[in-house]
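From the methods appendix. Each design record in this collection lists the tokenized structure first, followed by the designed amino acid sequence. Records were kept in a plain field format so they could be parsed without special tools. The example shown here is representative of the layout used throughout.

RECORD:
FOLD TOKENS (576 positions):
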């Protein structure tokens, strides 16, 4: 370690020197049983932990953190594990998305305030990944992302059972095709281990983004949570971060425009979640990299979907791992010239070097660029008078007949109205109707919940209807599917056109032309907006008020406006 003493590390401002403050800083850390030589100029590495029993998907992180810690020590660094709030997808009310930005602030301020030279981010459940990336991007230390890994495949009565199967079973229940007992029996068969949802939902999409961005190590996305190899990955992340600090490879050298373009393409190739559009936009804007939602169309449109995974396909994450995982897709896409293979990653090598030896073990799970699972099926960005700043749809998840569709609007004012009326036998609706849900955007709900996959009315389910055009300013779960138009921007609560759609209005969706139109005249639209009154704010105090007052729109990443950009890691010292 002798020659490291001359290197000026951020942590040395805390630990090196003879002042009373340096003494106190060392002394207090030594209260944990840390020997004197830990202050000889070794890189101090934070392990940012979203462990929580309230986030079951991340509940193995105390174990995983131990393996990161061992790796850090092996490489000559000093680990400093710390908790941040953990917005878990299932339990958090009203939606974990509301807390994503709060978590990112926790990460940013904790990193800035403390003696850390680099950080390993432990993230898994949906919002924990973007929150940690956003916070870390605003500080810009050397950073490695380590994901939770997926649950093992669910297994129910001898068959694989994923989240999509569970949603289908719930619809069968409402249509009277399944019995409650089956549903209850399936409950513990779906989630038989810790880890993130076992399909290509938002969590595994974001874990894949971490890998594609080069912020995570190869195989980060798919090694199951309980597989010993994930512990090895954790240990390797611990070892590598210490070198990353020594090499001064800060996050901005990895998280570049090229890396984000790679991520957009990989998202298309894996049939990734629509939530990635919002999260990567927010991360890019923290980092100061230009990224417009239009880029999702321009960059992703010609990329075929290679992966046959639920919700777009049929397999699950464990199958993906056994077939070779994301390295196979990245290698194939690099060879086809679809990715910037020379993008630098946290291994210190390029994307193409990291993945050159990946072998596909099951071509029914991982198809190839030459023989894709689906053509041109990434995220489509729509425009039109109903969404002048954009809306998002995942065409691969929609029934083909609805990709070009005209129908009469049936409007729901919000979640409560929807729950109240959707199964009313007297609701005037048919299979060609266009279901509208409003006041569920970032400011309106607030927090932009995953309500976009409106349930098909029970009476239509009974007729065998399995998909309808649904439009909202909400998001949808990465495990959801259907002809679902999301993220309509501007949202209804800020006076977007969605606010003044009426029952019976004709709405046209044309995916090929990327259009979403409300068929009324511009004059009529302006007349309606002129008499529109904004809904009352949902909160007048606390974090929720801060969120309502400052959240930006879906096309801007739903960040708080004052959090866009970086603060960096320089913080002046002061006495207590
Ligand atoms: Fe946590 Fe799906 S609920 S990953
Ligand atoms: Mg979700």
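DESIGN:
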């Amino acid at each position: 370690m002798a020659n490291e003493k001359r290197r000026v590390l951020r942590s040395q401002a805390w630990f090196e020197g003879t002042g009373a403050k340096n003494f106190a800083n060392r002394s207090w850390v030594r209260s944990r049983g840390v020997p004197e030589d830990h202050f000889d100029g070794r890189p101090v590495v934070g392990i940012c932990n979203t462990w929580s029993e309230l986030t079951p998907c991340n509940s193995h992180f105390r174990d995983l953190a131990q393996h990161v810690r061992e790796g850090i020590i092996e490489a000559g660094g000093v680990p400093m594990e710390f908790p941040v709030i953990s917005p878990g997808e299932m339990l958090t009310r009203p939606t974990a998305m509301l807390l994503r930005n709060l978590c990112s602030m926790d990460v940013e301020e904790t990193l800035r305030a403390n003696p850390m030279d680099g950080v390993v981010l432990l993230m898994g459940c949906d919002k924990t990944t973007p929150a940690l990336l956003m916070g870390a991007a605003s500080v810009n230390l050397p950073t490695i992302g380590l994901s939770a890994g997926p649950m093992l495949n669910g297994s129910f009565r001898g068959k694989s059972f994923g989240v999509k199967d569970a949603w289908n079973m719930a619809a069968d229940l409402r249509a009277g095709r399944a019995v409650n007992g089956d549903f209850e029996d399936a409950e513990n068969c779906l989630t038989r281990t810790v880890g993130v949802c076992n399909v290509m939902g938002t969590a595994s999409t974001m874990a894949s983004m971490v890998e594609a961005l080069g912020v995570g190590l190869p195989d980060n996305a798919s090694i199951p949570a309980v597989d010993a190899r994930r512990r090895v990955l954790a240990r390797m992340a611990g070892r590598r971060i210490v070198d990353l600090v020594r090499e001064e490879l800060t996050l901005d050298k990895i998280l570049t425009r090229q890396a984000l373009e790679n991520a957009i393409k990989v998202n298309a190739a894996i049939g990734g979640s629509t939530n990635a559009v919002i999260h990567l936009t927010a991360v890019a804007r923290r980092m100061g990299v230009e990224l417009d939602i239009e880029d999702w169309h321009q960059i992703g449109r010609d990329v075929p979907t290679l992966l046959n995974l639920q919700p777009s396909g049929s397999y699950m994450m464990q199958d993906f791992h056994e077939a070779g995982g994301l390295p196979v897709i990245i290698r194939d896409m690099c060879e086809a010239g679809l990715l910037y293979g020379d993008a630098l990653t946290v291994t210190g090598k390029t994307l193409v070097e990291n993945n050159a030896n990946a072998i596909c073990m099951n071509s029914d799970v991982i198809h190839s660029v030459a023989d894709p699972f689906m053509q041109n099926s990434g995220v489509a960005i729509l425009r039109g008078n109903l969404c002048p700043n954009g809306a998002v749809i995942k065409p691969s998840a929609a029934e083909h007949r609805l990709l070009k569709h005209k129908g009469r609007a049936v409007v729901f004012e919000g979640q409560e109205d929807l729950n109240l009326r959707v199964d009313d036998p007297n609701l005037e609706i048919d299979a060609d109707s266009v279901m509208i849900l409003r006041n569920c955007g970032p400011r309106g709900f607030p927090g932009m919940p995953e309500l976009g996959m409106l349930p098909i009315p029970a009476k239509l389910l009974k007729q065998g209807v399995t998909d309808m055009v649904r439009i909202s300013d909400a998001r949808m779960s990465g495990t959801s599917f259907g002809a679902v138009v999301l993220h309509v921007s501007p949202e209804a609560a800020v006076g977007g056109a969605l606010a003044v759609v009426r029952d019976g209005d004709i709405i046209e969706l044309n995916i090929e032309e990327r259009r979403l139109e409300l068929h009324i005249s511009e004059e009529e639209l302006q007349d309606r907006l002129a008499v529109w009154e904004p809904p009352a704010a949902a909160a007048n105090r606390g974090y929720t008020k801060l969120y309502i007052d400052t959240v930006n729109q879906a096309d801007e990443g739903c960040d708080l406006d004052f959090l866009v950009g970086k603060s960096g890691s320089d913080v002046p010292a002061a006495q207590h």
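APPENDIX NOTE: The chain has two domains: 2-17+39-152+193-355, 380-536.
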